[in-house]
Amino acid sequence: LSGDDPMARIGDLVADYWARRFQAVGLQSLVGVFLDNVANDSGDMSVDVSGTLNSDVAAATRLSGDVFVDGQATFGDALRRVEGIAVHSAVYANMKKNDNISFERESLGTAEIETYRGIRIIVDDSLPFTPAGGASAGDSAPSYTSYLFGSGALGMGQGSAPMPTETDRDSLAGDDILITRNHFVMHPRGVAFQSASVADAAPTNAELAIPSNWSRVYERKNVRMAQIITNG
After folding, report:
1. What pLDDT, on a 0 to 100 scale, did the predictor assign at position 58?
2. Residue 151 in contact with residue 83, Cβ under 8 Å?
3. Is 48 in contact with 71 (CB distance < 8 Å)?
């Protein structure tokens, strides 16, 4: 009705759908990887300054320059590999309030790039987040997980599904159906997948978040990611 090419709009919707599914797989993998790291590698890729109760929340429990440097320091002498930080929008809002974000124009001058201490910022509300609890939960404070990334922290390869796209129609309901399939592998580099708790041929998103399914096999400095847990 608006004059858009309908096939192009459908293509955009499909691309957006798969982008969300890829993102979900990546984030659930990171949850499992860092739970394993805390349990089996002394949490040497993780910095947690969050307070448990609302009364514990202070400047020191929020994302700050010092906390960022602590996260960067987990990379050892490979700290210059850190090229991006992913944060929840609540953390991003605090960063803006504290005037921590720089705005730069890319080379053509058409897009504005946001950076924090020289690295790119990604804002995503699907990052791990624990909401605040009421009195029954001990007045617990919200906590947010942010991730530091180096280039190539997550590897991805796409295969070819036997029938990647097909259509169907429910004539009685008047519905046209588009079916898309995707075969892909997404994997955090430097960490081996153990398949310790996988029911079928491939893990579900919930199974990706199980720490026993992961084991780090690279030296810490060669794993290009770290997590920072704060109250904002």
Report:
1. 94
2. yes
3. no
Closest listed residue to residue 153, CA positions, set 183, 114, 190: 190
Q: Which amino acid is at 95?
A: M
Distance of CA 211 to the CA centre of its chain: 16
Count of C-beta atoms within a 10 Å radius of residue 32: 24
Residue 112 pLDDT level (bands cut at 50, 70, 90):
confident
**Count of Cβ atoms closer than 10 Å to residue 60 Cβ:** 13
How do strand 143-150 and strand 129-130 relate by DSSP bridges? antiparallel
Average pLDDT, the chain: 92
- Enter the pTM of the model: 0.88
Query: Could you tell me whether strands 143-150 and 46-48 are parallel, antiparallel, or unpaired per DSSP bridges?
Result: unpaired
- Cα–Cα dist 53/186, whole Å: 36
116 alpha carbon, distance to own chain's centre: 17
Q: Give the Cα-Cα-Cα angle 174, 178, 184 (nearest 5 degrees).
A: 160
User: Tens of pLDDT along 23-45?
Assistant: 999 999 999 999 999 999 999 99
Burial grade of 230 (CB within 10 A; 0-12, 13-18, 19 or more):
buried
Instruction: Report d(CA 137, CA 188) in Å as an integer.
Output: 34
Q: Which two tokens stand for residue 77?
A: 């002498």
* Ramachandran angles phi, psi of 12, nearest 5°: -65, -40
Question: In angstroms, rounded to a whole number, what is the distance separating the alpha carbons of residues 107 and 104?
Answer: 9
